[in-house]
Amino acid sequence: MKHLKFDHHFIDNLPADPVTHTVRRQVVEACYSFVSPKSTATPKLLIHSPEVAEMLDLSETDCSSDVFTQVFSGNALLDGMKPYAMCYGGHQFGNWAGQLGDGRAMTIADVINKKGERWSLQLKGAGETPYSRTADGLAVLRSSIREFLCSEAMFHLDVPTTRALSLCATGDEVWRDMFYDGNAEYEQGAVVCRVAPSFLRFGNFEIFNSRGDSKTLQTLLDFTIRTYFSHLIENDTIHTDTYTRWFAEVCDTTKTMIIHWQRVGFVHGVMNTDNMSILGLTIDYGPYGWLEDYNPDWTPNTTDAANHRYAFGKQAHIAHWNLMKLAQAIAPLFEDTTPLQDTLNNYAPAYKKSWQAMMQQKLGLNTFDKALVEQLMNNLEQMEADMTIFFRKLADIEIEDDAEQCLSKVHDAFYPTDKLEDKAASVWTSWFENYVQHIKKDGVDARKTSMNQVNPKYVLRNYLAQLVIDKANEGDLSMLHELFEVLKKPYDEQPEHETKYAQKRPDWAKEKAGCSMLSCSS
Ligand code: AMP
Ligand code: MG
To answer: Residue with the nearest Cα to atom 11 of ligand 1?
Structure first.
């Protein structure tokens, strides 16, 4: 792996924490601290993503080498790697939480690949940093599997996301209380290497504003724009207008990310401002989940059980709230904040427009019909329909089908089939009649093909992730590898995998820990 070309633009251009030993502390007027990964007992590569490796110019021979396992488990560094942890703050569950930072993540290098692209490599779970607060800087196998599988699945679903290069078991044990209920136990430790152009978050900017440190705030923002948003710079100068255009772009990419989440039924679970990427990438896979029966109020995160702040149906609104916090964070760089306010005001109408376009695509229509969509959302919710299966099967409906034929085509999507028999006629008949009229009138060309490109057949169902974890905990990685492959082609039929991977949640999984209930403990 000696051919990898590293770049130190982040540490060369931004102020460093002068303290270089790892002791937990408040770090001021600095964007990062130098750190070292923790050595591990018996590191073992469990899985890697050949697609991400290729992006980094790593061959399969590189990936199967011992040095790969050593480096990506945190046991060794390649010449030229200079690991650092970023300083950031954040609003957690609506409240300012002060300094957070990379408490168990560290960037080990930025790679410039042969195409000239910049990729940051970050180890998650490689030990303590000054930002670890009261925790250990480690990650357990279950949550590392969830991050590895889901971030790659999201990429293949066309959802903007950080990627994952590798998942290594460390051979060390990690003490965890999975539900914060006094039942702690040892779990297997693991390290994921995740990859993105940048891991900067809203919280990286908020921390400086919270401390009244406009100087470092401006240094970071100018650096961010020059490095990742250079298309916004005119005549090589950055001024307030550039900041406004930058904020508008963050609003836009964030909006697009949320639209994709709504399209595929993804619930992030912890949309704190420290978990919001300035590149509009899905980041920090924790207690996320996938909608099974369509329920906008659903969140998998037990830490959010009281308020459902981060439920599926609230994600667009929360993203807007988070963007408001980002606007407030950079406001000291403006004499007049009207342009920031105007940009923020534009988010809701822009979101609505994109959401309508997305729903139109999911339905295979050339126009958006409010009544049709609202009635559908109501029906799905009332009848507990599996979102993924319903939309996938909807593409099978043809213009000559009557309501009864339509219903039988989507029948597999419903959880309580008895409820369906009673209510089906009244709830669905008029909707399907209406829908068939619409597709006759303004259905898109090649409707089934088009719908199947936006309505996936395979998503990382909550219970499937848990089955993979249960097996991996016993040393059986076959399902991890198999599901990883299936999720690379989520829009393909893959009939050979249907019975195992494209089914409704089984009854046993409804209330099982890890399947429908997760906490931030990871
Ligand atoms: P999260 O809820 O995962 O976004 O984490 C919130 C904050 O807690 C971030 O600053 C994390 O780096 C930190 N954190 C989470 N888990 C750990 C851990 N096991 N050790 C140290 N810091 C952690
Ligand atoms: Mg986080």
So the answer is: 103
Alpha carbon nearest to ligand 1 atom 18, residue: 137
| 222 tagged catalytic | no
Burial label, 189 (beta-carbon count in 10 A; 0-12, 13-18, 19+)? buried
Beta bridge partners of 99: 89
- Reply yes or no on whether the pLDDT at 349 is more than 70: yes
Secondary structure class of 292 (helix, strand, coil): coil
Contact call for residues 193 and 48 (beta carbons, < 8 A): no
Ligand 1 contacts (CB < 6 A) are 100-104, 131-132, 135-138, 270, 274-275, 284, 286, 520
The protein residue whose alpha carbon is closest to atom 10 in ligand 1 is 100
**Nearest CA, atom 12, ligand 1:** 103
Spatial separation of the C-alpha atoms in residues 13 and 171, rounded to whole Å? 37
Q: Minimum-distance ligand to the CA of 520?
A: 1
C-alpha 155/C-alpha 487 separation (Å) is 10
Confidence category of residue 512, pLDDT binned at 50, 70, 90: confident
| Mutation to probe ligand 1, out of 24, 91, 100, 128 (largest number of atoms < 8 A from CB) | 100
Measured from the alpha carbon of residue 288, the closest ligand is 1
What are the Cα distances from residue 495, in Å, to 96, 154, 458, 492, 502? 48, 21, 11, 9, 9
- Rounded distance, CA 430 to CA 425, Å? 8
Report which of 279, 318, 289, 313 is spatially closest to residue 160, judged by C-alpha positions: 279
What one-character DSSP code corresponds to residue 178? T
How far apart, in whole angstroms, are the C-alpha atoms of residue 76 and residue 520?
29
Residue 2 confidence (pLDDT): 87
- Distance CA(291)–CA(513), nearest Å, equals 16
pTM of the model: 0.97
Burial of 308 per CB tally in 10 Å (0-12, 13-18, 19+): middle
Instruction: Check pLDDT > 80 for residue 426.
Output: no
Return the ligand 1 atom nearest residue 272 CA. 4
Q: How far is CA 272 from CA 93, 146, 178, 202, 379, in A?
A: 6, 19, 20, 9, 31
Delimit the domains of the chain by residue range: 9-200, 203-290+306-360, 365-443
Give residue-wise pLDDT tens across range 151-160.
999 999 999 9
